[in-house]
Amino acid sequence: MAVYVIKRIVVSIMTLLLIMCITFLLMNAIPGSPFLTEKSTPEMIERANAKYGLDKPLYVQLFNYVKNYARGDLGTSLKMQEGTSVSTILFGQGKFELSIKLGVISLLLAVIVGIPLGCIAAYNRGKWIDGFLRVMTTVGVAVPTFVLAGLLLIGFAVNLHWLPTKSNSLPDFKSYVMPVISLSFYYTCYVAKLTRTSMLDAINQDYIRTARAKGVKTRMLILKHALRNSLIPVITYLGPVMAGIITGSFVVESTFSIPGLGKYFVQSVLNRDYPVIMATTVILSALVIFMNLVVDIAYKIVDPRITLTGKED
Amino acid sequence: MMNTKKVFALLLALSMVLALCACTSKKPGDTDEDKPGEPFVVNACIASEPETIDPGLISSVDGSTYTQHQFENLMKYKMIDEKVDEDSNMLKTEIVPGQAASYEVSDDLCVYTFTLRDDIFWSDGQAVTANDFVYSWRRLVDPATASDYGYFLDNIVVNAAAIQAGEKDKSELGVEAVDEKTFKVTLEAPCAYFLEMCAFASLVPLREDVVEGNDNWTDPANIVVNGPYKVVEWVHDSYIRMEPNEKYYDVENLGPDAIVWWLSDSETAILSAYQSGEYSFIETFPSDMIESLQASGDCFINPYVGTYYLYLNCSKITDWRVRAAMVLSVDRENIVKNVTQGGQSPATGFVASGILDSTGADFAYGVSELGAIYNTLQEKYPDADLSTYAGKCELAKKLYDEAVADGKWDPQTTVVYNFNTNDTHKAIAEACGSDWQTVLGMSISTENQEWATYTNGLGEHNFGVARLGWIADYNDPVTYLELLVTGNSYNYGLYSNEEYDKAITEAKATLAGAERDQLLYKAEEILFGEEGFPVCPIYYYTNMYCMKGLSNVGYTTMGYFFFWYAEAAK
To answer: Tell me, what's the ipTM?
Structure first.
């Protein structure tokens, strides 16, 4: 296992390097400049390019990026917070921590609520509760986050005054309620649908029939035998989602005034803030790579028959 | 054993959730309720996170507003006891000496000598000196600063343009600290609006020892200011908190104990916070809520010196009659009433309403009530009824048909209308396209692009029609008219007219007065005369806001709000 993890880390670093190169080429290929405004002139843009080294050849700029990243220097924002170091923007004042916190809680909620709902639906296949959960989860994956967030905000904050309109830095329990529900609702419903489908698939397997023939009770069949195998697709889904739920929190953070990272993933591209684009892409990639590694290890835990290195048999 | 494990795992998961929930962050300053005896805090939201609050680098209205609250210039905006407008509940402002106690102007009106007040200090206790102004002004024009407003003093202050072009050193700028309290500025030619420029946010004084070598000098821990308020806390993407600067000469008379600028770009979130009483002032809200907000008495309208207009690319729509027909056939009343719905007024010229001539008259209507777009055409076609939309359409069709008959325009041509992605811009594009199609029979294709790609295309003149808005930098028609001079970087439609260029050059070198007014009025007539119509003005901007619980708030038509003498409304 240790050798496998070390190998994966080495490959991950190579992957990140490749991602940096591709990102650099792509962001320089799209038209526009971070210094374009309604009142900017070509001369002003030229001066700003010179100030931030964007007038140098592309290979020099790329080399500088890689060199600086190796030293832990993510560069300086050109637009969104001009002149501020990117690491301060992304990691200063607990932004990263805030987004991770919101993402992890939402994901935990999605798992804690979604998997049991899927099991209940599968366990009661064809009954009214299955029908109800299927309708609910279908609506859940269809309703856009901004609609749900807006409805919650108007209902519980503006009209009922039960919850604060601004969650800010999530100072207390109340401030979590609406952002977490908004962010996790889609994933909860999706996990429930996924669990139900894979559970039904598992129930029809031979080993379940055998267990049933041996007289194992249905409840035990679901919880002990079927659930374990049906979790593999769910785990596969949750890995990349963990990374996505952090970057995808843009709408939720914006609606509930949470100063997290979400907006930088979207607005850095719109603003052509190259160092921020690069940093957010590398962070997202690193998260996806890390979560894939976690997922692979989780496979092994859930199903010991799965081999990681191909030599364990 | 298995059950114990499961219970343990469940408890662990729950404890993780609770632990994460329990991780508390610092609360954003004061509560929002202003109870008797509690500090008076203004909670305002005018924009999202600013790109910068460095006065030398700012280019946005919100950044300028924060600067105006933290720094004071040679001249300042002082509130007067008169409402901005009948639809507003704010007070007008006028330009008066700020950090300057007095100023003298030379006989040739080219040298301004400001004497600074004796009682002006930086927030760290040091006295404000003329050198602080010299440093700040030189820093602004220094190409190394790469300021968006680096051009601001071009052709106004001696050598500013040459320094910007890299031909001269910044030390050669026409500014001088005669002594600690005397600041002298030498202009290239008399400038009618120079004193107004001296109140502009980019020209506030800065301390060299604070700014130089410190990229984070605007952080609350480092910043040193000379204005009424000082930032004490800045949680990025959340809020900026300002408190009175104890060293400010008028600190006793300041209103709020704190001003919290909330930073948000979500219209729904901003409106929700206002409706629940957490904000007392907002500028952004969903446009479909305007009507109900006006009905509830929350929403007010301020005049705002800006024009929303379209560039008509002269290299693609080469015949002036086609361009004139397009300008005439846009139903502006429909756009402001049914599309924008923000109290805007239909544009009648390129220079925004609110810009004044030397007599104090609104330049937009200085020649006639019809406005510059129609004045010249009315003279040329006296039979046309340009006071009605039907009359305008009739003349538009006539001009268009003439151009087609002369072979100057192929009616099969599809004109590409570009706009940056935005619902309002889209709706305006559709309204204009529909008018041109219905009235003239033109074929229009609308294309939206995200901002950076869009502005790139503007610079490459890669469009038939393209939208833009221009907010005045100072109250003078030149701020608009010089944009369309041959070779100007903002002349995206590639308009070129020698007579027009000459009129603008002469006006810039002429003292404020009747002669200068005539030159500027003539220039705008040329713009909308034969061989003209390079732009299609749509409407004059307004500034909508919601405010409750506050009074004594000042406003300039440049879009700046002043809360420093605000009071809780009785």
So the answer is: 0.77
